[in-house]
Amino acid sequence: MSGPRAALVIVGSELLDGRWRDDNGPFLSASLAAHGVRVAHILVVPDDLDVLTADLRFLLAGEPDVLVVCGGLGTTHDDLTTAAVAATLDRPLCEDLQARSWVEEATRRVSERRHVPFDELLARTLKEARLPEGSRALPPAGLAPGYAIAAGPTRLYVLPGVPGEIEAMWPPILAELARDGLLSDVAVRTVRAYGVGEIQAQPLLDEAAADGLDVAVTASAGEVTVVVKYEPGDERAAARVERLVADLEATLPVFSSDGRSIDDIVADRLRERGETVAVAESCTGGGLGGRLTALPRSSDYFLGGVIAYANEAKMELLEVPHGMLGQYGAVSGEVAGAMAEGVRATLRATYGVAITGVAGPGGGTAEKPAGLVYLGCSSPQGTVVEERRFAGGRHQVRRWAIVAALHLLHDAIVS
Amino acid sequence: MSGPRAALVIVGSELLDGRWRDDNGPFLSASLAAHGVRVAHILVVPDDLDVLTADLRFLLAGEPDVLVVCGGLGTTHDDLTTAAVAATLDRPLCEDLQARSWVEEATRRVSERRHVPFDELLARTLKEARLPEGSRALPPAGLAPGYAIAAGPTRLYVLPGVPGEIEAMWPPILAELARDGLLSDVAVRTVRAYGVGEIQAQPLLDEAAADGLDVAVTASAGEVTVVVKYEPGDERAAARVERLVADLEATLPVFSSDGRSIDDIVADRLRERGETVAVAESCTGGGLGGRLTALPRSSDYFLGGVIAYANEAKMELLEVPHGMLGQYGAVSGEVAGAMAEGVRATLRATYGVAITGVAGPGGGTAEKPAGLVYLGCSSPQGTVVEERRFAGGRHQVRRWAIVAALHLLHDAIVS
Do A51 and B40 touch (CB under 8 A)? Predict the structure, then answer.
């Protein structure tokens, strides 16, 4: 795909030594890609004037239509982004009157909230009102204003690094880009399958790519996701995409071909049917409940559940019989089924979903190694139990188990 | 700090359109930084031969000591990393015998697991045994081998993009770098405070930076984290760091000055004292339990809990009186306290911790807006309740509430 190109620079030493993970690059690139702008670089750089200046020069030399720089607009000694922009564009820094009034206003609020004298604070924050000559100040969502400035053919936007502030400041910039004709509609088709590898989708995808489709595939936690993009008006491409989707549906265990995730589908189905779900979790410790409630309005169908980490909790809250725990062990299909039935009965839910396993790295035995997980789903149709063996560390085993539980629930709902 | 420099290139179009988030950049940069190697760039680029080649040239022109490239070593049409490396270094691709035998072995395993004929699969995977001339193949952790190759003064390592494979392939590379004298010890001091803003730490940090300390600060979910790095032998720096730590402890509500997170500290304290905790969660849906069980061996102190999303669950599983829910509402200090007491009693835990609130974006009222959260902690010393108002969206409110609950628990343990 041709069309407008963008690059992102994410500034912050904390992003290069493991202290912190960048949220802004994924947020901004997703937003731009959804509007037909190809992001060709996300560059994460430390608060280092020389590195930052060299990187800005390199990216501007590629003449992207849009360059967004995030972070390093704060008041501390290591906030050097504006100095680097000024050096790159060879512009002096001048106090911007509009930016100054915004900074004063924000400083007053912080001064009150944090009980720091206004004048003392302003002496530090006024730095944020000094912008490279020729900038247009953008209203702040926190303390620091952003700014827009032309750099040859490139629209350069400089924003603070706080994700909440970026999310608030981004929509007006997107509207500007739309007004200037840089954004376009992109048709996207997403197909998701569960329980296969990328390699099984590959022949169909290679064929589609050879026919000129922009097709991409990723695999995660047992799910394979295929994404195809095309121009909305391109009827030939649209027809070829339909054929690919039909071929994938015929070949693979596809559970979604309209873009929805397994979380979305489970939520929609439960809401449509007026049904409810409750969870009983051991090795995931609440992670399945956390995921089921990540979507807004999940109280429409999620009743609650039990985190039964200790055996006593399994007996006390889920009425799993003591004898069953002794005979089969807490990590067993029998207990997974009893946990699912127990929580379904206690909370009078349509479905009860249970997870019990050895997340590791310790706690495993030869017979029941780390990674062994039993899933249970109890429904009006009866109780289904699944044994799975997941690879990887504690975090990965728990993540795969949660995704597997969502699919088990999905199967129970549709069957 | 001078010393060796590194750059990372993370390849994958899925990382630039919101489909996927990079885990490899944070993992590798944290590992390198912990061994005294300064990572000056993490560059995320699409599977695009021209972009990739231009970016490799740019980074190599800076002559870093180490350049690690991750991703794009697979078998599909869009895996172009090796072609880009070959073009950048102007080397032909040749089949490597060692790589070929590894690829054959891995292909046999996949062929069996995925029920795809070996020959058909090998025809696709053999691409992964063709390396730029002069490469040294590195044993694969999955299908694709990695390779090392000299690029002028730079050690270039090319690895697959699957995080689990990177984690397995990285330690021998780190050992190589150590053997070549590129790694060094770094002394790190980390101080964490809860309930203040960065701005309150700033004067002390500015002073320390002016004295030449390498000091950095981040803020997240109500916690401010200060990290100072110095050379282990530098006694002057070590003394200045001690003074900074003492000043911070005297000025701010510091809860950790030895590097441990609040999760670590809570876990250690409970284990030391032989005490236990149980949780009762409403708006966080299991997220607090999920976080308390993220650490290995959490069964030493975590008993389980109740996810009481619906009012019925609060009554049924926690014995919160119906009248209390009617009089004060589910989101109230009274109910938070009753939930904490209920789960503590039911699971016979030393501490019961509860969260009830309006995560939003919907469900709020003028009196009880989205972001209003009540926390409760019940202990042998009695029950404490806290009212908080968090800003931001659903995800952020839930995250802040979980951190606040951990700190409330911490206060109860130490008091």
Answer: yes
Chain A, chain B: beta-carbon pairs less than 8 Å apart: 305
- Tell me, what CATH number does A117's domain have? 3.40.980.10
Residue B310 with chain A: CB contacts under 8 Å: 299, 302-304, 347
Which of A 253-272 lie inside 8 A of B, CB atoms? none
Sign of CA dihedral B292, B295, B301, B305: positive
Contact A299 B62 (CB under 8 A): no
pTM above the 0.80 mark?
yes
Question: By the CB < 8 Å criterion, does A123 face chain B?
Answer: no
| Per-residue pLDDT tens listing for chain B (415 residues) | 478 999 999 999 989 987 888 999 999 999 999 999 999 999 999 999 999 999 999 999 999 999 999 999 988 878 899 999 999 999 999 999 999 999 999 999 989 987 889 999 999 899 999 999 999 999 999 999 999 999 999 999 999 998 889 999 999 999 999 999 999 989 999 999 999 888 888 889 989 999 999 898 888 899 999 999 999 999 999 999 999 999 999 999 999 999 999 999 999 999 999 999 999 999 999 999 999 999 999 999 999 999 999 888 888 889 899 999 999 999 999 999 999 999 999 999 999 999 999 999 988 999 999 999 999 999 999 999 999 999 888 999 999 999 999 999 999 998 7
The token duo for A217 is 């595939």
Q: Domain check: are B251 and B267 in the same one?
A: no
Contact B42 A39 (CB under 8 A): no
Residue A358: Cβ within 10 Å count: 23
Residues A334 and A401 in one domain: yes
Q: Which of A256, A279, A308 is the last residue of a domain?
A: A256
Domain membership of residue B164 as a residue range: 5-179
Structural domains counted in chain A: 3
Q: Kindly state whether B216 is in contact with chain A, defined as any CB-CB distance less than 8 angstroms.
A: yes
User: Kind and range of the H or E element at B407?
Assistant: helix B394-414
A181: left (phi over 0), alpha (psi -120 to 50) or beta: left
**Quick one: A376 and A322 in the same domain?**
yes
CB-CB under 8 Å, A40 with B42:
no
CA distances from A254 to A237, A245, A258, A259, B199 (A): 21, 9, 11, 12, 51
* Nearest by Cα to B373 from B350, B351, B399: B399
